[in-house]
């Protein structure tokens, strides 16, 4: 006769195995991978690499590498993590697209709220409207005049549907009530290359990427997307969108860290503890602030606060995206 205590014994053995795994995590010879769903060289790539370095330090020098799995506006990389083993060694580092792709894509292969564990938000970046160096306009006022005079002829680059640059560009067009040709790329790095080369006219990008190009006089800066002006030297003469007459125009782009659903709670705690140490690391803070980013140090660093914020962002951006009428299958 089968013992009625056998299922209990099996459950206890499994629990002991999970606890042992969590205590050992991370195993010394097993690398942790941050999957970044965008091309190398962009602002989110930089933030991911900075965090990987800081978290490696916080975890006793454990190896953390970046896997750039770009494509489909970031959904390829995100899906890769959603379907990965829930062991804490494959994590997703992404930005605001985590709250916008569910509306952009009718058939997204994963569920943002159900298929991930939330580790914590890391930083947020203001954005900057920039233009090709040969653009005839030099100020925001001149740019608006030029746009109005060239309706139907202007194109604006972005990192793909649902990306931060796309959202900013959509908001810019809707505020001006002018349609522009959207030119999607697999990340803002290749988009920046074409902007510098004059193949596209405009782009919204995070200040972590725009500042070096502005300093090198490779692009023109027209405005920033924050409620107040930024202190970075390269942007000291750039007005806010609101100063330029675009009422209530404000966009900041946040980055966060996620694990596959089902990752053991003890593993998530170790990752969250390392993240909280990292966002207080002076070197990490210096690197983020050097590019105009703000390191997040509030309830959003916690898994519960992170998820609550994502839910609010999903509600915030869904109507904006639907009003634009741009969807992908």
Element layout with pairings:
Elements: H1 6-24, E1 32-36, H2 43-58, E2 64-68, H3 75-82, E3 90-94, H4 97-104, E4 116-131, H5 140-149, E5 155-158, H6 164-176, E6 181-184, H7 188-196, E7 202-206, H8 207-215, E8 220-224, E9 252-260, H9 265-278, H10 282-290, E10 294-295, H11 303-324
Parallel strand pairs: 1-2, 1-3, 5-6, 5-7
Antiparallel strand pairs: 3-9, 4-7, 4-8, 4-9, 4-10
Helix pairs in contact: 2-9, 2-10, 4-11
Describe the structure.
The chain is of the alpha/beta class. It has 2 domains: 6-125 and 254-324, Bordetella uptake gene, domain 1 (D-Maltodextrin-Binding Protein, domain 2); 126-235, Periplasmic binding protein-like II (D-Maltodextrin-Binding Protein, domain 2, 3-Layer(aba) Sandwich), CATH 3.40.190. It has 11 helices and 10 strands. The chain has helices at residues 6-24, 43-58, 75-82, 97-104, 140-149, 164-176, 188-196, 207-215, 265-278, 282-290, 303-324, and strands at 32-36, 64-68, 90-94, 116-131, 155-158, 181-184, 202-206, 220-224, 252-260, 294-295. Strands 1, 2, 3, 4, 5, 6, 7, 8, 9 and 10 form a 10-stranded mixed sheet that branches. The longest helix is centred in the C-terminal third of the chain and has 22 residues, at 303-324. The model has no long low-confidence stretch (mean pLDDT 90).
